[in-house]
């Protein structure tokens, strides 16, 4: 089946079944051609909770589809390709999070949304990479546990020196592939470019950034500025979309290995398959979903919280 036919078939099924397709901005850009919305994980889940669609096809990784299910329990949530997991989220499970908490029994636990529903259910409050600093600050405590991303934890620590952040040891293997030398080489080639870095990067990388922010914050930064060249230190999908959105400017991926292969498993064929057969449905245990929802809602309720990833 050629791409045009695939897209037509997906759109036909979408309207017949009252479905929507949500695409994360790290997906292959071909997904955008059928997606109703493209964005960050929590922003997409919030949209999912507001839609009157019966079926949500979440083209992203598993924890994102789970979050959509938690926020929209009465909808059928489908993940196009079962192999799409998140390596960072998989670094901590229910047993490990309980052990981590047991070592520091009196401390609150902040958990990055890049985690399973069970881990979210065990934490006091969730955060995104955009609002992690605000979330920790909102707790008004001197010490806090942070999981799973130790580098996002370091970024929060740098911004809140009066709070002691005790981080779990997880990390994103994709962002770990960026080194300070990559930035230095890119800067030699593009000396006038501004460097935009995701806070999942190591501190020695983040320290070289002109701007540090979540994917949505990076898109917003580009929108509000008018530099000619940008060096982008996050997943390739962000660069692909920036190039499409701003054809008059130059976007350089800091090295060509910054690809989250888990995100790229979802194809148009997979989207068609799950729409047709309604397979790969995502379920979350009711009690776990209720407790995870509390942690998410607590984050959302923080005044002026920017709920983006
Ligand atoms: S880029 Fe990293 S954090 Fe994001 S889905 Fe891939 S492995 Fe997980």
Short characterization:
The chain has 14 helices and 12 strands. With 309 residues, it is an alpha/beta fold. Mean pLDDT is 95; it is low at 305-309.
Structure, described:
The chain has helices at residues 3-16, 41-50, 62-71, 94-103, 117-122, 132-139, 150-159, 173-176, 180-189, 203-206, 215-224, 236-245, 268-277, 286-300, and strands at residues 19-24, 37-39, 55-59, 76-78, 109-112, 125-127, 143-147, 164-167, 194-197, 211-212, 229-233, 250-253. By secondary structure, it is α/β, with parallel strands linked by helices. The protein has 3 domains: 3-85 and 263-278, NadA-like (Rossmann fold), CATH 3.40.50.10800; 89-171 and 289-300, NadA-like (Rossmann fold); 178-253, 3-Layer(aba) Sandwich (Rossmann fold), CATH 3.40.50.10800. Helix 1 packs parallel to helix 13 (268-277) and helix 2 runs parallel beside helix 3. The chain is globular. The model is unreliable at 305-309 (pLDDT under 50). It binds iron/sulfur cluster. Iron/sulfur cluster is lined by residues 61, 86-88, 114, 172-174, 235, 260, 262-263.
